[in-house]
Write a structure and sequence with these properties.
388 residues, alpha/beta, seven-stranded parallel sheet, 13 helices, 16 strands, 27% strand, globular, disordered C terminus
């Protein structure tokens, strides 16, 4: 396919390289070409053009002739890029939602009818979390007759002397100052920022960690395709602990704005390699767990799926210099593109794409260094004695 990747930061640049290796004809677009080339690398043959993601016609001119338009830039541009894809009659894929028009429903879903009319497919929030987490929730739900609850738990930790962002500064800040979205008793609600603290046990080598409510995109898609009563997303690790401490100290609010010292820009591969060599960046980890509870044959059932992604140390052993989150997100997006449902029309979150495509993506995970385990627990029903 001819693919245009808009946004050439840590994730977008690595995704472009993965797609080129898959045999696609890839072009990248970014507002800052010097920055894009630093992320892509000096020796790359992947072309990069200057694009203003805020301008529809700038995207249309740059991406014209592409068969797939990928938005790897900030989610705030989703709707502009979706309209550009429709203009050039291209398929579409993005990595996250912005959730501003409706805080409980991904804005991309509004374009479903327009993509059906053009006979084109849009796969949205197709990264690791969201993305793989949606696939695992759908896989677990398929084992049940009905679903009561979906709980997603994430772990993000960086062992470094100074703050090193695994996400872009804008994404990290937006998540930190946004209210968590939850489902309680079948209704959407806002949770308390960094609230509902609990202990959760992740697989080794992470182990037990405190997790708190976070503003994640899964709540904007999963409940619209899966009937459930309860849902929330919580995050643990030293990065969320640091944000929680700043929040309690009154140093974290939208009115204060993004402070560069607290939300640094994502380091380029060369900068990551330099930090590792100097011993300032020792390691980083990223993991996801999806716990789904429901009923099967009138008996309570719980399905837990754990996804362990390569650590920074393991990624460095592969000759790469990027964070576990960038690695996981780009690898998952590449798999969604490898098994893209081109024969479908409309807008699809990961859990709603055709079953055969979902199964193919999950089968390919191990080849990308992503390990997923599943545990099914069937609980006994306590029967009350009857007395006359």
């Amino acid at each position: 396919m001819r693919i245009f990747v808009l946004g050439t930061g840590s994730t977008g640049s690595y995704l472009a390289h993965l797609l080129a290796r898959q045999g696609h004809q890839v072009t990248c677009g970014d507002r800052d070409l010097d920055r894009a080339r630093r992320f892509l690398g000096k020796k790359t043959a992947i072309p990069a053009v200057q694009v203003n993601a805020r301008n529809l016609w700038s995207i249309v001119r740059a991406a014209r002739g592409s068969q797939l338009l990928v938005n790897a830039s900030a989610a705030v541009f989703n709707e502009i890029v979706l309209r550009a894809a429709l203009r050039i009659r291209a398929h579409y894929l993005d990595l996250s939602a912005h959730l501003t028009r409706n805080p409980f429903k991904a804005e991309q879903l509004r374009f479903d009818e327009r993509f059906r009319e053009k006979n084109r497919c849009a796969v949205i929030t197709a990264g690791a979390a969201p993305g793989l987490t949606n696939l695992l929730a759908a896989r677990a739900a398929s084992l049940m007759d009905s679903v009561d609850a979906v709980h997603i738990r994430l772990y993000e930790s960086t062992e470094s002397d100074d703050p090193v962002s695994q996400w872009s500064a804008e994404v990290s800040f937006d998540e930190a100052v946004s209210l968590p979205r939850i489902v309680r008793e079948g209704r959407f609600r806002f949770g308390k920022r960094f609230g509902e603290r609990e202990k959760f046990r992740f697989p080794p080598p992470i182990g037990e960690a405190n997790v708190v409510l976070a503003a994640q995109d899964e709540v904007g898609t999963i409940p619209h395709f899966l009937k459930l009563k309860e849902m929330d997303v919580k995050i643990g690790g030293n990065e969320i602990d640091r944000l929680r401490r700043w929040y309690r100290q009154g140093k974290l609010s939208r009115s204060r704005g993004l402070i560069a010292s607290r939300f640094p820009n994502t380091p380029t591969p060369r900068q990551v390699a330099r930090l590792i060599r100097r011993g300032k960046l020792q390691n980083a980890r990223f993991a996801a767990a999806v716990v789904v509870r429901g009923v099967k044959q009138e008996r309570p059932i719980e399905v837990r799926c754990d996804a362990i992604f390569p650590s920074l140390f393991q990624i460095r052993q592969r000759g790469l210099a990027l964070s576990p989150i960038s690695y996981a997100t780009a690898q998952m997006a590449a798999l969604f593109i490898k098994h893209f449902p081109r024969d479908s029309a409309g807008v699809f979150p990961p859990g709603a794409i055709p079953l055969e495509n979902r199964q193919a993506i999950l089968r390919d995970l191990r080849s990308r260094g992503i390990r997923v385990t599943m545990k099914v627990t069937r609980k006994k029903v306590l029967e009350e004695d009857e007395f006359e």
